[in-house]
Each structure stands twice: as C-alpha cells, then as structure tokens.
User: Fold these one by one.
Assistant:
Number 1:
Amino acid sequence: MATKIRLQRHGRKDYPFYHIVIADSRAPRDGKFIEKIGTYNPNTNPATIDLKFDRALYWLTTGAQPTDTTRTILSDEGVLLKKHLLGGVTKGAFTEADAETKFAAWKESKAKAAELVANKSVAAQAAAKKARFEAEQAANKAKADQVAAKKAELLAAAAPAEVAPAEESEAAAPAAESAE
C-alpha cells in the first residue's frame, strides 16, 4: 500500500485547521486515514504545529511520502533532518552519538532563531505602543492649547466690556461735578 503523509482539512469556511495524517494515497482528502500524527493551525502567528515526532519519523522510515506542505512542516520540526542523520548512521558515516549531537545543535540554533524573532516582534510592538502614546500626548497638548487660546480670547473679550462701563461711569462723574 502506498502511504502518504498529508493534511486533512477541518474548521469552518475561511478558517482552516488541519490534521496531519497518514493515509492511503488512493483515499479522499478528508476520508479514511491510518493514523493521525499531529495538527497544523495556520491561523495563528506564527502557525501552530503539534506533531508526534516519533510517529512521523517511524512513518518516514517505513516509506510514507509526504506532500509538499507536510514536507515543509516536517522539515521545520526536524523530522527530515533526523531521518537523514539516521541514514548516515546506518551507512556508517558517523556514530549515533554524533548524530544526536548534530541534531541537538540544530535544535538549539532553531530555538535561538525563534527567540530572536519573538524578541524582535515584542520590541516592534513596544515601539509601536510608545509611538502611539507620544502621538496621543501631542494631540492632547494641541487640544489643550486650543482650549487655552479660546479661554484667553473669551477673557479678553469680556475684560474690555467690564472696563468700558467703569470708564463711562468715571467720565460721567466729572461731568456731574461740573454741572453742580
């Protein structure tokens, strides 16, 4: 039987969620499968992959052929590298301990790269938040300046009106004295 490692679509319209399954190559996409070895959710950022590493490696070594997308997923998770290293051990190119150290080094470098991306993302979010805060402060300051200018204008308009009646009463008082 020709087996494939492929994706089986689930989820609602415009929101896919996939199961990574081992299936007969003649079975329909969402039909009967032999074993479910993981899930793939492309809707999250970054995409969420939950994979049974040992079972995926087992099926690859027994001859299951991954589809293009699952090949990429298995490569990102390190299953294809592990299979390659195990092939080198069987050929006698290096020992199993060497293969494990190479795989551990690859896994560590992958984790460091993921951490760098996560830190970069967090830093970008913090910078964006700071920029939004500064823009909001500038807008608030501009609004406060406008309100202060309007208040000063209203006070200036009200002050001459109060001064004018006082001046008129002072002018009227000397005229009254001269009339007496």
Note: The first strand starts at residue 3 and ends at 12.
Number 2:
Amino acid sequence: MSQELYCYLNGKIVREGEAALSPFDRGFLWGDGVYEITPCFNRRLYRLKDHLDRLYRSFRYVRIDLGIGQEEVEKLTLDLLQMNLPLLAEESVYRVGHWVTRGMDTPSMVARAAGPPTLFIFWRPVAVEAAARSLAEGVKLAIVPTRRVPPQCLETRAKVTSKLNQILAELEADAVDSLSLMLDIHGNVSENSIANFFIVKKGVLWTPPAQNVLEGITRKVVFELSSRLRISVEEQHFSLYDLAQSDEFFLTSSVTCVTPVREVHGIRPSSPVPGPVTKRLMAAFVDETGFDFRKYLSD
C-alpha cells in the first residue's frame, strides 16, 4: 500500500489522513470559496504561476483576503512538492489542488464576520490509463438541460467552489453515459462541466468568448500553441448548427490537455477522431509537458 502524501492545511503540513476541517467552515456550509488545480507531470508542476495568477484574480472577485502573497503560496507549494517527491512515481500525473474558503463561520452567519481564510494544498493521482483511452478514442458528449450560469449572475471567469450548476450538468450527462456539453441561456455552446470546448471548421479553431466560460489555463496555452503552429483561432458565439458543420471537436483541461470528442449528442465530426488539427495540438502538448499518455495504452 502506498504511503499517504503530504498536504498543507492552515499552516501545518500533515499526511492526507490527518487533515481535518470543522464543519462550520464556510466552504462546507455555503460553498464559499475559490480553487485551482495545477497539473504535475513527471513530478514537475506545469504552469503553476498561471494557476496562482487566476487564483488571486478569483480572490479579488469574491473578496477573500488570504493574508499572504502569491509568492508565499508558490513557495509553500514547491516546498510541499519536495516533501512529496520521494512518494511520487517518476512517470506520473497528479492534480495539485489549492482550495481556499472564507474560513470559519460565526453564529451570525454573516460573510464579513468569517475568517481567517482556510488554505488547503494537496496532491491527487490521475488514472493515466483511463485518460490515455479517452485521448485515443475520443469522448462522447451530451447536450444537457442545465444551462451555464450567465456572467450577469455569477462571473464565469472566477473559479469558485460553488459548483452545483456544473455538477447537475455532469449528472445529467452521466445518465446517458456521456460527458456534458452546456449551453448558455441564449442557446450558444458554452463548455463542459470541467473543460473548455473547441470546434474546428476549415482548419480554423472556434471557441466561446472568455466572458461566457471559465478562462481556462489550457485554453490559453492552446492560443499560444496555435499561434506557434500557425493555426487560426476565433473567439465567438456559435450554435449547435455551427457545431454540426464542423470537422473536429475537442475539450481542453489542465490534466489531459487536449481530449478529442467523437460525438456530441449524436453529431459526429466530419474528420476522423482525433482530427488533424487536434493531433497537432496533442503533439505540441506532449512537447510542452514532457508527458505522453499514449505510452499507457494497452495493446
């Protein structure tokens, strides 16, 4: 049995099984917090600064003052990585979580009276074989009835722990053995419960505008890589009609980077899965991260 990894909780480094939090924490009571998940490929953190940049943008939006700066959180994370290093396989993928809540609630249950904030940093292993199969075969998506909360109600670019909107979408899709694809309140394509969505039309990438989706770090890297590969990218609203005319579909997320989509609610792309543009981006991410999921495909 593998040893428990180390995690950080409110000033202490403990084993996972020793981490404990009061049920009066506002993260438990109200989902009052923000979070980030940074991938760790082959024991190396990927784009940690980008993730922490977004974490601190989320702090400003939800009005949480962590009380320590971004550089200190980065140092805590790197120190924790060094402690966990002997316990991490050389070829592995982990999700590194940064969870921050407003802290302990008071009897008044007033948000401004809560605190100090709770900071939890932890490692979670990724099932690389299952991820490798998804990358090789593509995943199936279903259009779900639950619509993405509009930015006029809750800013989509903030990574908040109040996830019931996306969880309901995930459960609706799971009922038909699929992953979710959410629409916005106007019927435009938005995103998956935990990933951004792209289509390819005539060699051009289309993805919903940032104001309508979580501003994904991997989404940002796709823009960078596409510029390097001379692939055009357009941020625009598009409908299921546009999707039905597309050559390729794919999802982007921190851990699997680019995941081909083989079907969306019965609509199949006109290109093979993965398509040529998707393949180029997948190969570019292998170079970027130094990790190739294809090595874990069983014969």
Note: The mean pLDDT is 96.
Number 3:
Amino acid sequence: MDKPTTAKRPFGIRDSVAYAAGDLGCNMSFALKGYMMAFWTQVMGMGAWYSLLLVIVQIWDAINDPLIGSMIDADHRKYKRNKFLTYIWIGSIGLIVGGACCFIPVAGFPPLAKAIIFVAGYVIWDAFYTIANVPYGSLLSLVSNDPADRASLSAWRSIGSMVGNMLPMVILPMIIYDANENLVGWRVFLAAFIMGILGFICFQFMIRNTEVRVDEDIKVNEDQPKFNVFKAMKNFVKNRPAVGATVAAMGMFVGMQGATAAVQVVFQVYFGNTDIMGIVQLFAMIPIVVFTPLARKMVVKYGKKELAIVGSIASIIGALGLFIVTPNNTGLDLVIYILCQLVYSLGLGIYSTVSWAMMGDAIDYNEWKTGTREEGTVYSLHSFFRKLAQGLGPAAALLIMQPLGYVNNAINDMGEAYIDVDLLSFEVGYKLRVLVAALFLVAALMQFVGLALIYNLDKKKLATMQAELAERHAAEE
C-alpha cells in the first residue's frame, strides 16, 4: 500500500528563521559555557583542579553523544510530527534548569563537594543539550535536499548562533561583574536560569515552524540490516567530508573556547574594563552580519568548500595581527586588537555560514558511499568531537595560564584560596594577551587543514553526488 501523501509548503524564509531560532535556543544555554572557567576559579576557588574535572566530564560526552545519536537513528517509531523534533522538545525542557545546574554558587562547600556539584551539574546540562542539539543538527539534511536551501539554512543558523551569543556577550558582563571587576556567583546562577527559559521559548518557535520535506526513513525497509553503531563509527572515519568538517570545527573550538577563558581575564586585568568586553566582541561580529546575506548566492557561484578555505586564510591573517602589542597598553593597542578581531571574524563568518551545510553534505556523502543514511550517528560523532574540543580548549588554556600567573592568590573569610583579579599584575594580563593571539592562530590553522586538505567535496564533486543520490531515491520510489 502506498503511503498517504501530504502537501509540503515550499521552502522559504519561514524555514530559515525557524532553523535560526533553534541555534538561538542552543546558544542561550551554550554561550554560558564561556563563563564556567571564571566562575569555578574566581568564585568557587577550584584553580587547576577545574582543568582536570573539565577533561573528566568529557568522558561523559564520549558515551553521551554517539549513544543518543545512534538511539535516534535506531528509533523508527512514528511520531505525530517528526522524531527529531520530538527529541528537540524533550531536550528543551531539560535545558531550562540544566544550565543553572552548572553555576550553583556554593563557594563555602568542601572541595570534594564542589567537585561533585560541578560534575553532576555538567552531566545534567550536557545530557539535555545533546538530546536537543544532535537532532537539531541532523534536521538540516531533512528540511530540504537542495544545496542552495541548505546553504540558506546554514547561514541563518549562523545568525541564530550569533544572536544567541550576543545576549550573554554584551549584557551579562554588565550584570554578573561588580564594580571591582569581580564575578558575582548568585548573579551568574540567576542569569543561567533565565537563559534556559529563553532557550525553551526559541525551541518551541522552531518546532512549530519547521517543515520536514526529505523522508527520514527513506533507507528503512524490511531488508535493511540491523543498525550497528560500531560500523557507523567506522563509516564516519572513512567519511572525509565529515572528518574534515570536524577537524575544522575542533580547531575553532579549541582556539576560541580556550581564548574565551583568557579573554575575560585580559579585559579584567590588561584592559581593566569588563563592561567594554562584550561591546568589543559584538563589534567583531560585524563581518559575520555583513557576509551572511550574501552566503546563498556566493555558495551557488563558488561552492562551500572553496568559500570556507578563503575564510580560514582570512582568520590566519587576523590571528597573526593579534600578536602586535603596543608598549604600556596604549589606546592604540585596543584599536589594533579590535581591527585584527574584525579580520579574524570575517574569516570565521565566511566559514561559519557554510559549516553546517557542509555537515549536511557529509551526511549525504555517508549515504552515497555506504548506502546507509545515518544522520544521527554522523552528526553526533561530529558533535562529540566539537564538544571534546570545547572542553579541552579551556582546560588547556587554564593549564597554560597557571604558570603565566593566573593562580589562587587570595584567601577568603573561610580560609579558602580564590583568584582575586585585583591582585593580578599587569604583566600577567600582557602574557594572557599574547596567549589569546596564539590560541586564535591555532584555531585558524586547524580550520585550514580540515577544510583545504581533508574535506573533499568541492563544488563539482558535490553536484555529482547530489545527482547520483537523486537517481537512487527516484528508483526506490
């Protein structure tokens, strides 16, 4: 018996805005991760122990992401709307409190208790974030199979990500720091809870306005072999586009998440102004805003891989410029910092607007080469390595920051050591300023390697793949 057919509305701006809202929801929670290092070292006084705990919780990611991804792929039950949207709905509920669990201000607790609270809070947040984020990423390949449409979704996802970063980037520094540039624990906790609620609202908007046009079960039939997660992982390693896109994303997060940990201290100690920190970072997003509307047309003309490589080169140039530091921190130094951030962000903007579309193509590549469509597993493994980099970046940065002078340098009323930025020297700020430049350079170089040397779906090869897949799907109908 033939499946009943239902009319699908044409792809349009509604789809793009809805998909952007999904990443906005993710980043309402994820953007707070940039404040974890400052919170757990400056408020909770954990110091170098935080680096160790941050690496340990990534073990949970090693189990969590692929497990949930394979679970979604193996789930062939029929849902009212779509299984991906159902999982996103569940994850959005948990994220209301998940983010706040990472910022419970109990500085007076014993060190072991604080370590347990950090690990438990992170695990809770990470589980719900994965439940929402893995199917959200996989959904791009199901909204449309047209390359231009996917480029539009990817570009709008970048807009959602950007807006989702703007709120915590610009507003939070003005709220969570006191007049002496010190972080206030209860303010961070309250902000995390409110961000969770805002994220839930964004996810609900996305769910109610998403149209799935590609049959998610197109490869599911009675003759299909039972799903094998180990085989899927092996396929992922052989999937050059997925590996290349993942290396590039890991580079971005190792450098940028690590740099985020150091940037906060640079503005606290070197520039001595946390209020301007968010404004400077917001200013650096101008190139992303300018490029995003052009992404769709440029992808059609030049190709995703080709554009992304140009972006990585621009980021390398911007990162090299960040090493220019004027003596005695003159006003010119801040100007140079801002201008180099603009160049770096231009490259990042070019890459980020097509990065998710490239992963959508990598999912198709998996089907093209293996005959099996494994959206959840391919994306979850990509997500796992991204999140591993998100943990390793700040952990490595903090370990480097310790010998540079970022140490527990004060004692509170209860006799516990904590970091008081007022006691950190200008020299420490200068060293961290150079560290920021080095971390950005590492990020840009890894992006270039992943995109130029590993990712192999250029414009011509992508067209061939899309045409052959279309013929297969037509033959199966």
Note: The radius of gyration is 22 Å.
